[in-house]
Amino acid sequence: MLGVLTILTALMAACGPRTHFPALPPALPDSLSQNDSLAVLARDLAPILYLQRDESFPLERTVAVLHPSRRVIAYYLTYRHDIAARWSPFSQGADEEELWVGYDATNAPTDIWTYWHGDILHANWRGKGELGVNVQWGKHGSLPRGTEASELPRGKSLELFYAMTYVFPDLVFGRFSSEGPLCFCHSFARYQEFTRPIVLGARLTAIGRTADPDSLLTAVFGKRYAHKPYWPWEQRRRRRLWYEVSGEHALMGRE
Fold first, then answer.
1. Which of 94, 116, 180, 236 has a CA positioned 20 to 30 A from the CA of residue 78?
2. Can you give the residue range of the structural domain that contains 167?
């Protein structure tokens, strides 16, 4: 019986999705030209991404969208793969991660929001200088740079996610359908070392302006992207709580 279950599991894993990104069309819906002043603003206000030093999956495609009636810019990010249930044939395609930057009439950043596993983290960024976001190893949840570990939502702490890298079978099963690590295999302190910077403003696949970016995201990410909330104030896709974080103090292990 155990042998049968093992074979069935392997077959399911083999049928698991290999993240596929469509060919980009000549013209993208709701997109701006690279020289448009709003496109320049989106690049200027794109935060620096700080990946964990052992991150295996590279950043693949990214989209910036300016809201037409609010001073908020959304940044939607996809990585080549991730460790969350990638072995399952029922999982979705590209799992986009999200962050948002608010700005004032002078185009100075005022707020940053990040998507953290179903919740929204918010940090006031007035007068704090360069925008930065820490990116979780493997699962790619986003944290305003400087968020303290104690400020994270209950049940979604870094300690818990670190423990899950050893307990859950995703990493092992995922090897049936994609390249990737078998474990994190390092200390908790190292899990919090966000030391690999990526200049997001230089890596934007597309820049658009719309309140409903579904058409643009579908064109860039494919029809089966995860369809998370487009804006931090949205409630229609799933219940979320809005957590205030300081964004002022370093996480343990930060350089």
1. 236
2. 30-244
